[in-house]
Amino acid sequence: xxxxxxxxxxxxLQDVYAVIMERLSKVKxxxxxxxxxxWSTATQDLMKIASLAESFAEQRPKSSRxxxxxxxxxxxxxxxxxxxxxxxxxxxPEEDGLRHIAALRLAALRLLEAGLETKPGTETxxxxxxxxxxxxxxxxxAGNNSLAATVLTSAAKFEEQLKNASDSDDSHxxxxxxxxxVYYSTRMEAAWKEGNLTVADYMARKITDDNQRLGLLxxxxxxxxxxxxxxxxxxxxxETNDGCKPADAVQWLQRAFSMADQEEGTAGLTGLKISILRxxxxxxxxxxSYDLAEGVLDELVPTIDASQDHASSEYQELRWLxxxxxxxxxxxxHTLLGAYKSIIDHMEFTEPNITDILQDLRTLNQHxxxxxxxxxxxxxxxxxxxxxxxxxxxxxLSLIIHTSKDDEHARAMKSLDDIFTSVCDADLELxxxxxxxxxxxxxxxxxxxxxxxxxxxxxxxxxxxSHKLFTTNSPSTCAKCFRKAALCHIERREYAxxxxxxxxxPTNEASTHYVIFLTAIHQGLQDEAIRAISDMVKxxxxxxKMLLLATQISHQSDMKPVLLAVLESLLKTxxxxxxxEVVVEAMTLIxxxxxxxxxxxxxxxxxxxxxxxxxxxxxRTARILAEAASExxxxxxxxxxxxxxxxxxxxxxxxxxxxxxxxGDQISELFDIAREILExxxxxxxxxxxxxxxxxxxxxxxxxxxxxxFSVREIMAATGMADKERLEALFTEIxxxxxxxxxxxxxxxxxxxxxxxxxxFFHALRVFETEFAAQLQDWDxxxxxxxxISDSGPLAVGTYEAIADILWLxxxxxxxxxxxxxxxxxxxxxTHGSLSVEKFARWIRAICTICLAKDRATDRLxxxxxxxxxxxxxxxHNDSDAPYPMDERQWLLATAYNTGTECLHASIFDEAxxxxxxxxxxxxxVPGGQAxxxxxxxxxxxxxxxxx
Length: 948
Description:
- Among the domains are: 1-117; 120-162 and 173-194, no CATH class; 332-428; 431-506; 688-835, Alpha Horseshoe (Serine Threonine Protein Phosphatase 5, Tetratricopeptide repeat); 840-948, Serine Threonine Protein Phosphatase 5, Tetratricopeptide repeat, CATH 1.25.40.
- 78% of the residues lie in helices and 0% in strands.
- Helix 34 (691-719) runs parallel beside helix 36.
- 42% of the residues are buried.
- InterPro entries: Spo22/ZIP4 (IPR039057), Spo22/ZIP4/TEX11 (IPR013940).
- Keywords: Meiosis.
């Protein structure tokens, strides 16, 4: 080089140096604080310094270093200073901080390159190559990939010099190998980040193909290289959706594992190997190399299970990956179960982890395997005292869903029962919401089987819901399950089994009694069905719709007693108020019930006393309904029903008179009810009451009283006495009935042809009245009755006779009352000629006996008057078919003669004469009467003589 050119070159280097030093003087004060606001300017200056230093290195002459050596030494010192400063600066997460450090290191590297000797030594080359690698890494981290590639490319000359450097004593072999390998790895990383996989792969081969160099690398370098290979392989694995193939990643991961596997014993390397194998297993899996993937994972799993951090998320990923590989290889259920157990045994029981297990199980078709996994998960969950009930709840729900898909029903039910029992044995209580959710699923699957007419399966599902696991927080649901199961058994016609199941329910629910009713109906148990209806109505949750269903079922089963009980209960549920529609419905029910009872009464084997009481009770209710309809002005709405009711009650009572035994009171009450309902009809009728209805009113009134009279008579005949209060009540009732019949006769039946017929009722009631007045010894009332009868016309004669019979037999009857009655009889009979001669003779004897017993002149005169009337009767009927009885004639003769004799002795000659004259007349009508008449005549003549 000419002197002139040398001088020019030296001048240029001097100028560049001056500019570098000037900029360094500005930058250095800012390097102490990386947060200085002018740091961005300093970064630009550092980049400019690096560019100037690079220009200095390119322009310096290759010979005669003395001309610029002092400049080079100065730049080298500045480079060392900047590099040291970069080492002291912390690499924060901020992107600007990385750029600052990268710029600082780049400037330091270029200054060091500018200060290098023309032929640097081996150590210098190793050092500068290492710095170039570090600078490239820093630039890559700062995101300046192109500049990093430029730095690393320019450093290739140092790598080449190292390759050609002589090392006679081999003291620098390891350093050269390490620096070269790190340099290649840095270039590899730079090419990868630029997307140039070809160059990256080339650099990787340069590292791995030189076994001699690899043997010289220290552990930390191998660790670094393995990490970089792993990083690239893992990145390629993530980019498989962008056109990369899993096989590409496998190649890088194999390099990483090969590099890491060359060193054993360090904890860090072991961790790195595990990480590499984890990624490699996933890569094999994605590349469908399942055998290789399984081999890798089989090697890993024992290691990670033995580690202290065996439950980490990364290790769990490996276990999941192993499971996925086994499933792809279609491994046996036993092997898959082992994989699942490994996952479950090392996982925390959290919501996400349980979700992962359950979602994965849904992808399997192996029913037994899924069940076994569920059970193992249950076992592990129950062993952990910190497990929340929600986790158990989720597992139970999942198992319920799973077992619902089992083709083997018995196995499914056993699985459920085992799990439920294990939860109970662990003293774990499900919250009410969780229990409700489980029961909802159970009922849903039971309902599906029920709709499919799989009654047995449906019953088993419902019975599963009755497990004690669910009864703690939801006891009512247990009864619901039993009822549903019982209904399934009913559908299968297993009525005995249904009955057994339903009896496990509490007895305070109407629904339970309804199911009991169904089982009893199907078994033909009428009494039990009736009892179930009664209990159902009493239950607090009773719904009237149940009775409507029971009505239909009872009707279809043709069990009339049960239908009767249902209808009666249905009637009781009606609230008779101001609602006319309720009255109409109740009337319809009453008619149905009455018809049903009457049809049951026809059966020879029927329980007549009970049915009679039932029909009477129903007519009582009918009377109440009729009264309610009358109060509500609703009679027109139910007029036909009311008419039907009174007629039916009347006819039923009439029929009962001949067919019902020992039911006098019920018959009487039916007549009363018929009368009362008929009266309501009459009051509501817009027209006047006709004679026929009045006859029925009178007949019903009379029949009711008569029935009660007969009942009292039967009691008195059986016991010899009767309750005084009952006698008084009946006495009052007779008076009331007599008044009602009298009112009908005077108003409606006055001119009717049936008036005389009704009069017989009236007179019979007088006899009843007399009878019970005598029983009560109410003689004043009895005297009034006799006086009342005196003006009652020819029909009263029979009444008098009956009354006389009553009084004659009653020893407690006062004589005056008896006399009054007998006198009225004789007066009526003489007036109307209604008595027979025989009866007349009997009552003549009776009244004469009473009169003569009083032994008073007035009474004797009455007696002789009656005897004279008897003489007229004797004469009138002497030649008739019914003459005066001979014994009575004899009695009259003896009484007249003896009384005359007594009067004669008492010097009552007028009376004696009259008695003797009567006896003389009687003698004509008795055998041997002529001789007797002569003696009487002689005695009468003596009386006449003495009188005069």
